[in-house]
Each structure stands twice: as structure tokens, then as C-alpha cells.
Specification:
The protein is mostly helical and 309 residues long. The protein has ten helices and two strands; from the N terminus they run ααααααααββαα. The chain starts with a helix and ends with a helix. A two-stranded antiparallel sheet has the order 1-2. α2 runs antiparallel to α10, α7 packs antiparallel against α8 and α8 crosses α9.
């Protein structure tokens, strides 16, 4: 009887389309707040490429330099690409994660264990990354453009202009350039982020100090963001450099992600794989916090005004 009641409750969950929609909207809402940090992170990862002198000494130096050279609008360069990335990548990964999580939750309400959550996160992340790679390539190129001399800039006006020009000038497959490291990064990020968020939230709720509210979601998200930053930065720098690279005399600057990692280590030092740790976490931490807060609040009000009626 209890199992039947639990099954009835689960059957009244949000429709799959709503899960996908809320996932994308949550990510897009967070992007409005963290796009400047994403730009700084990308610029820091490209600074000092190939052993050249670093353009930015610190994250603060990067921000002040960008503001001085490009103005307030400059720090929001690539916003359209960031929003499209969330509309594709985040919609797909959070939607798939939520569906699989519910499928693997037992009839008595027992959630999947840590390793199952990690597997769900990796699956959702890889699929989402493949879908979102064209927007990711556009974002990397648009945010990197301002650091180049005027005559070497690509000059994309928005994400759709970037997609059309890349297809016309470099071929359709260019939209999926760096797809493998992008998917590898997503596997690492989602295994760390989604599973550690769920695990952190469960742990915090097991304590007597927390209830299932915004404070709990905030704390779980900050823990999740820190774990994700430490785990994913080396893969992220490989992704960034491949997607921004140019073809010189018919040859790409890098052969693959492993080539990036080896050359960065050899030319710039081992710890350069974590170059830009501060803006990376400053971007990923708040984005994780805001995404899950928006998602939790949308689910809460959808349940209140639609499912419980």
C-alpha cells in the first residue's frame, strides 16, 4: 500500500518537457550574472599561450584591463553564445539527469547511491556537451576576440553570426571542433557537480542545522562548485585552447587535448593547467549556486501551483 502511494506520488511529478525547460531557464538565468567571470576565465586560460609573456597577471588585472580597453559592454562579450550554450547544454544535461535520477529512485523513495549519481551525471553531461558544442565554440571565440590585434579579430556580432560564418568559412564540422575534450570536461564536471550537489544536500539535511530551503541549496552548491573546479580545470584549458585555435599553413595549432596538456605543462609549467583557478571558481561556484537555486525554486512553485491543485 505504501509502495502504491509512493508510485502515485511519483506519477504526479513534472512532465519531462518541464524538466528540460526548467533546466535551461535555470542555467540561462545564472548566465546573466556570471558571464563577465566566464570571459575573464577564458582570457586567463589563453594568456601566456605557447610560453609567451602573460597578458594578465591576476584576475583583477584582467578585469581592469578589459574594462579599460573594451568598456563595460566588453565584459559581457559573448553573452548571446553563453545563453545559447545554456539553452542547449544545460537544458539537455539537467533534463536527462533529473529523469534518470527519478527512474533509479526506489519505490520507497530511497535515492540512488553516490556511484549511481556519478554515472547519471556523466551520462547526462556527455550528451549535453555534444548538443552544446557549437554554442561552446562560439562562446570561446567571442570572449577571446578582444585580446587580439584589430586586424586578427574574427568580429562575430552574435552567436548566430558566429555559427553561420564558421559553417561558411571553415565547414560544418568546425562547429564540433574540440567536441571530445568538451565531452570529457562535461563528464568530469557533471560527475563532480551533480553527484556532489546531491550528496552534499543529503548530508546537510541529515544534520539538525539545515532544512530543505535556499540556505541548504546555497551551501550544497558551493561545496559542489569547489569540487568541480579542482577536478575539471585541466580538461577545461584543453577545451578552450582547441576551440580557439587557428589553422596555420593547413595545420592546426594543437593535434588533440592530450597535446594541449603536454605542451602547456612543458612550456608554461605543471600548475598552469590550473591557470585562472580564481575566476574559474568565481564563475563556476556562483553559476552552480544560481542554477540550482533557480531550478529548486521553479520546481517548488510548479509543484505548488500546478501539481498540488
Amino acid at each position: 500500500m505504501a509502495a502504491a502511494a509512493a508510485e502515485k506520488t511519483r506519477s504526479r511529478g513534472s512532465p519531462k518537457a518541464i524538466k528540460f525547460l526548467f533546466g535551461g531557464l535555470a542555467g540561462m538565468g545564472a548566465t546573466f550574472f556570471v558571464q563577465p567571470l566566464d570571459l575573464v576565465k577564458n582570457r586567463m586560460q589563453l594568456s601566456g599561450q605557447g610560453g609567451r609573456a602573460k597578458e594578465y597577471k591576476t584576475s583583477f588585472h584582467a578585469v581592469t584591463t578589459i574594462l579599460k580597453a573594451e568598456g563595460i559592454g566588453g565584459i559581457y562579450t559573448g553573452l548571446s553564445a553563453g545563453l545559447l550554450r545554456q539553452a542547449t547544454y544545460t537544458t539537455t544535461r539537467l533534463g536527462i539527469y533529473t529523469i534518470l535520477f527519478e527512474k533509479l529512485t526506489k519505490a520507497d523513495g530511497t535515492p540512488p547511491n553516490f556511484f549511481m549519481k556519478a554515472g547519471i551525471g556523466m551520462t547526462a553531461g556527455a550528451i549535453g556537451a555534444f548538443v552544446g558544442t557549437p554554442a561552446e565554440v562560439s562562446l570561446i571565440r567571442m570572449t577571446a576576440d578582444g585580446r587580439m590585434p584589430a586586424d586578427q579579430r574574427r568580429g562575430y556580432t552574435n552567436v548566430f553570426n558566429a555559427l553561420l560564418r564558421m559553417t561558411r568559412e571553415e565547414g560544418l564540422v568546425t562547429l564540433w571542433r574540440g567536441c571530445v575534450p568538451t565531452m570529457a570536461r562535461a563528464v568530469v564536471v557533471n560527475a563532480a557537480q551533480l553527484s556532489s550537489y546531491s550528496q552534499s544536500k543529503q548530508f546537510l539535511l541529515s544534520l539538525s542545522y539545515f532544512n530543505d530551503n535556499i540556505l541548504c541549496h546555497f551551501c550544497a552548491s558551493m561545496i559542489s562548485g569547489l569540487v568541480t573546479t579542482a577536478a575539471s580545470m585541466p580538461v577545461d584549458i584543453a577545451k578552450t585552447r582547441i576551440q580557439n585555435m587557428r589553422i596555420i599553413d593547413g595545420k592546426p595549432e594543437y593535434r588533440n587535448g592530450l597535446d594541449v596538456l603536454l605542451r602547456v605543462t612543458r612550456q608554461e609549467g605543471f600548475f598552469s593547467l590550473w591557470k585562472g583557478f580564481t575566476p574559474y571558481y568565481a564563475r563556476l561556484g556562483p553559476h552552480t549556486v544560481l542554477t540550482f537555486i533557480f531550478l529548486e525554486q521553479m520546481n517548488k512553485y510548479y509543484k505548488l501551483y500546478f501539481l498540488d491543485q
